[in-house]
Write a structure and sequence with these properties.
This is 4Fe-4S ferredoxin-type domain-containing protein. About 30% of the residues lie in helices and about 10% in strands. The chain has five helices and two strands. It has a domain of about 60 residues. A two-stranded antiparallel sheet has the order 1-2. It is α+β, with helices and mostly antiparallel strands and about 110 residues long. The chain is globular and about 40 Å long.
Length: about 110
């Protein structure tokens, strides 16, 4: 098994990455390290960190822009479909549920 090493940049005030399977705290590590299925399918070009990764200065955490404001990232999506797309994307990637970023940070 090959171990992939990469450098990611996370806001200094971001919460620490929770243990795998623990509640999501908005640390942003998952979206900074690898694009999710929503990003891979709908956001071009694929990049890390995900271009829909949004930092909240007020809450001191990251949010998924594809969940909070998908029409902002998908020019073809009518804003009236924001809520439906948000629900779909939240379910598709299980946003804000449990940490599924199986990464080790140094």
């Amino acid at each position: 098994m090959r171990i992939k090493e990469q450098t990611i940049t996370i806001h200094a005030a971001a919460p620490p990455k929770p243990e795998l399977g623990a509640a999501c705290n908005g640390c942003g590590v998952c979206c900074a390290a690898e694009p999710c299925p929503v990003s891979l399918t709908l956001l071009w070009p694929h990049q890390t960190p995900c271009r829909a990764l949004i930092w909240s200065e007020v809450e001191k955490r990251y949010f998924c822009g594809m969940v909070s404001a998908p029409a902002q990232f998908l020019s073809w999506l009518p804003t009236r479909l924001n809520r439906a797309a948000s629900r779909l994307f939240r379910r598709w990637i299980a946003a804000d549920t449990r940490c599924d970023a199986d990464v080790t940070l140094e």
